[in-house]
Amino acid sequence: MSSGAVFTIFCNIPLPPAARDQLVAGLARDRLVWAESMAPTNLFTGKPDPALAGADIAFGQPEANQCASLPGLRYVHLSSAGYTPFDPPAIRTAFSARDAMLCNSSSVFSEPCAQHVLALLLANTRRLGEAFDNQRGPRGWPKKSLREDSRLLRGQTVLIAGMGAIGLRLAELLAPFGLEIIGVRRSPRGNEPIRTVPLAELDAQLPG
Known about the structure:
By secondary structure, the chain is of the alpha/beta class. The chain is 36% helix and 16% strand.
C-alpha cells in the first residue's frame, strides 16, 4: 500500500465516545465507514456486512469468510488477541494469495491478562477467597484452617497453555516465584524462555 494513498477503513466494534473521536481524528485523511451491525464484543466475530465490501482495511471483528472473499481487502487488524476464525487453512490461503495481512492486538492484552492470571494464582494459593468471604460474613477469622490450606507458589508447577504474548508475559511475571513453568504451544519455536512442549503433549503434562 502506498503511504500517499487514501484508504477506506471499515470498523465494526463499538467504541467509547473518546476512543471513537480519536479514531475519527486519526483517520481524517482517509474514509472511515462503520458497520451496519456492530460486533457485540471482542470475543465474538461480527456478521457479514455490506460496508466491508469496499474497504481496503478492516479494524475490529470482521467476519472471516467475508474477509477471505474480498480481493480488495488488504489488511485486517483484529481488536482481540485471539484470531481463531481466521486460522483455518482456506482463510490463510485466501489471504496469502493476495498478500493480505492479518494482525491481532495481543500486545494490548498481554500485561493486564498476565497480571490477572498472576493475581488469581496468588489468591488461590493464599486462600484469599475464603478469607474475604469470612470478613464479609461471620468475621470469625479461621486462621488455623486458612493457614493449613494455604500454599506457596515456590516449588509448584505451572503449565501455560498458549505461549503467545499473554503466555510469554505471564512466564516473566512468574519467574521470581521459584516455580517450574512449562509452556504449551502448537509448534514450539525453540526461542521460548521456558521449557515449551507441543500441543500434542498437553495431556501427558497435565498430571504434573
